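JOB MANIFEST
job_type = single_chain_structure
chain_count = 1
residues = 465
[input]
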Amino acid sequence: MERREEKPTVLIVEDDRALRSGLRWTLADHFHILEAETRQEALSSLQSERVDVIICDLHLPPATDSITEGLQIVEAAKQHRPSIPTVVITGSSDKRTALEAVRYGAYGFFEKPFDEDEVLHIVRQAARVRQLEAENLKLRSTLSGRRGFGRLIGSSPALEGVIRQARAVATTDATVLICGESGTGKELLACAIHEESARAGGPFVAVNCAALPETLIESELFGHERGAFTGATHAKKGRFELADGGTLFLDEVGELTPAVQVKLLRVLQERSFERLGGTRTINVDIRLIAASNRDLEQEVEKGNFRQDLFYRLNVVPLTLPPLRERREDIPVLASFFANKAAHKHGLQPPELSPELMAALQAYDWPGNVREMENLMERLVVLTRGARLGVEFLPEKMRSGDHKPAPPEEESESTLEQAVQALKRRMILKALEIEKGNRGAAAKRLGISRSYLHRLINELNIAESN
């Protein structure tokens, strides 16, 4: 079969043959066209073909006196992933039903008799929305499947420097000591080093030393034999044995007791140990990565941590920067965690308002990336609508003045921001010239009235403007 040109596909659902033919001629140079006369034919095409945009008359047989058939097509289009934009056709005296369809989920509408330029414009815009949503889904899928150093999100110089060092050490078996405040992503970095190493096919075993009771930590790390202590009714492997052939990550290693520090030092020197209550020496092949939110050198000076163990752990030190020292990564992190939370709870990816972004970037993040992830999930769960604002932020984050810059001073540091700012200025100017008449403003801008309505909502242009 000959492969057709890669154009977006438009499905025209219209029982009026002449109108359907006119639409086909208007769009055929730019789109691949499919046609249907009824809801059943349309749904069949949606199942068998890839459709990017639907143009649909609301009054379809057999129920031409109502809009039920048309609304069912709008509903079916919404169920696709990503949803298919539906542009509805309406008569000049039937705008109320078209607006109802838009509220029901339709992308927009145009009137009969149609203007060719208006139809071409709105369909192009709808196809572009579909393309962007498909790209967003692909990106989210890619992000959710991140491995190795792709797990660490951001491009700030502070983070990139750490990743460069980590890449260099990942291909070796050298012991790594990761330092950084709580919530900076120390376990994530340790896992990335493991996944980029020759041990990636082996286990990655993580232990939070601070979370284990002092009486159990030796048993958890090195295992125990049956009868080693009250309640030890059977032998148990420790984390060192479980990590054999892979990587053992000891988080908060500064919390280890002196007795466990001595045993850990021996394992690092000889790669062997005995289970608690046992006499048989067990040999292991592991790569050790340790982490601490304390300054272990200071702990050594205070006598709280063995100096010889510190030197054994500190072969390759890596220090993760706190979030307040990599503020340029905050927007991409916030968007990533918002999308992740939305996916987790079965919601659409949200938009972050300028007020929210300003508040996020002004905050010092004592809990670092972990605090941000938890906050973004809270905002996604509590917010009703597709735009996250500041209303559910903690009071400590709302106390500052985080109002966005006025439109004429909006950031235009990226192409997308510049385009958004230009659209806003043009719309405001057209509305000013036409004294607020949206129909006249849409005509002056060369766009449909429904598209102007959509832009006003998307760009958050207030009525007072």
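[summary]
The first strand starts at residue 9 and ends at 13.
Residues 1-5, 401-413 have pLDDT under 50 and may be disordered.
exit_status = 0
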